[in-house]
Structure formats: C-alpha cells, structure tokens
Write a structure and sequence with these properties.
Elements lengths: L2 H17 L15 H5 L9 H13 L2 E5 L4 H17 L4 E6 L5 H12 L5 E5 L2 E3 L1 H7 L4 E3 L4 E3 L17 H27 L3 H14 L3 E2 H6 L5 E2 L9 H6 L1
Parallel strand pairs: 1-2, 2-3, 3-5, 4-6, 5-8
Antiparallel strand pairs: 6-7
Helix pairs in contact: 4-5, 5-6
C-alpha cells in the first residue's frame, strides 16, 4: 500500500480515537530515515502496518473504499482503480467513505466518468468535515449518506490559472479560452446539483456564495433538509459482524 493511502487510514484511526475520547501515544518507527520516511506518519502503538493493510482488505471484502485527504489526480486514480477492481469481482453496491476538504475539478469529474461506467452502484458516506469537490463527489453517487456529526461546505470553483507575461499579444485569446473553460465547469456543476437537489440555479448559487464568502458548513440535518444529502446514518459500523450482514 502506498504511503499516501496509508495516511488516509491513519487519519481515520485518529478520528476513531478522538470519537471514543481515547488518548494514546505515537511511537516512532526505529529505523534509518529517508525523506520518504519523514513524510510517513507513525502508527499508533497498538497497530502494525500489516494490521492496517488488513483493514484495507477487509473493507474491500465488504465493498468499501476510503477517500481521504486531497482529491488530486494521483489519489483519485487509485480510487478509480479500487472501484474497477471491486466492480470486476461483483456488481454489488460499493460505498465511498469520504473524509476530504476537496481538491481538483478535472480528476473528480474523471472519477465521475468511471462511476458512470461501472455495473456496481456507488454510494457515498460522509464521515467528517467535507468541502468543495468532496461534496461534488457525494452528489455523483447513488445514495448520499452522512454520519450524524459530519458536515459539508460547498463553494464556487477556484482557479489557479498561470499567465505568461511575455506573451501579451495572445492574452485576449487566453482569456477567452479561460472564460469558456470556466463556464463549462460551472455549467456542469450546476447541472449536477440541480439534478441531485431539485433546487433552482439561483438557490444553488446562493449556497456556493455562502460557502465562498462566509465559509458556511451545513450540518447533516441541514444537508438533508436542503436535499444535499439523502439520509443520516446512525447504525453504520466500520467492521460489521457476520450477524449484522445476515440481518440485511
């Protein structure tokens, strides 16, 4: 398992510990350090790397995929591969457990394309404070679920466009291309939110503005009331036992 993927699982471990009000200590790994090692988080003392990898295998067995941290090209390609792998095994539903502050537009839209060509329906479960494209990703899924304390923030698309100052004679064309591209992205997002929420374009833009200007997070209850989510889940188990699966 890659270091960045492990980081997501370690972050989830931290959340579990905090939720349980359980204090623990971190023991650094005793070995020579490289630059990659310095970036790798230490495991809680009661878990080995092998055990964490076992979690991944178990979650795949019950068709769950963790989406954590920044949504970028690298992380979402891994997510897409995990989805394709599970879809190859069977057509049973898959749950994305999302805990992310957002990320890049294009890789998220590319993941939407992957979700659309799977035989397996993909559901989303928000498990923390999720924002930006993480909320868009939730809208791309069949069922939009939230844990009781999860919250979401939506805002306008932001762009980090680079301009070449030595090529000013092409600036008008560049600006036109930029405007067309941003309009394409905005229209795609607006269409997605209209389809999933049933809200008017004006109301959706108001939600984006509240997030952009006021950093407004919506609680799980508010999200359901505004049709940004479908349901608040109160009986979710990270590791369901066999008897729980049989009841379903």
């Amino acid at each position: 398992m890659g270091d960045s993927k492990l980081l997501g699982y370690y972050a989830l471990i931290d959340k579990i510990i905090i939720l349980c009000n359980y204090q623990t200590r971190i023991i650094p790994q005793q070995r020579s350090t490289t630059m990659a090692d310095k970036e790798k988080p230490s495991l809680p003392f009661f878990l080995s790397e092998k055990e964490v990898c076992g979690w991944t295998g178990h979650w795949h067995a019950i068709r769950r995929v963790l989406v954590s941290g920044e949504l970028n090209s690298e992380s979402l390609k891994r997510t897409a591969l995990e989805l394709v792998k599970l879809d190859f095994i069977s057509s049973d539903p898959i749950t994305l457990m999302i805990d992310s502050g957002g990320g890049s537009v294009t890789p998220t839209h590319q993941l939407e394309d992957t979700i659309s060509i799977l035989n397996s329906p993909v559901d989303a479960l928000m498990i923390g404070s999720c924002a930006s494209m993480a909320v868009d990703l939730m809208q791309m899924c069949r069922r939009r679920l939230m844990l009781p304390s999860a919250r979401i923030l939506v805002h306008y698309v932001r762009n980090d466009q680079r301009w070449i100052c030595d090529d000013l004679d092409q600036l008008d064309g560049d600006i036109k291309y930029f405007q067309e591209r941003m309009r394409e992205i905005a229209e795609r997002r607006l269409e997605l939110y209209q389809k999933r929420t049933g809200l008017t374009p004006g109301k959706i833009k108001d939600l984006f503005r509240q997030g952009e200007i006021h950093q407004t997070y919506f609680s799980a209850k508010q999200a359901v009331e505004m049709n940004l989510a479908d349901e608040i889940v109160t009986d979710f188990k990270l590791f369901p036992r066999k008897q729980d699966e049989e009841k379903k």
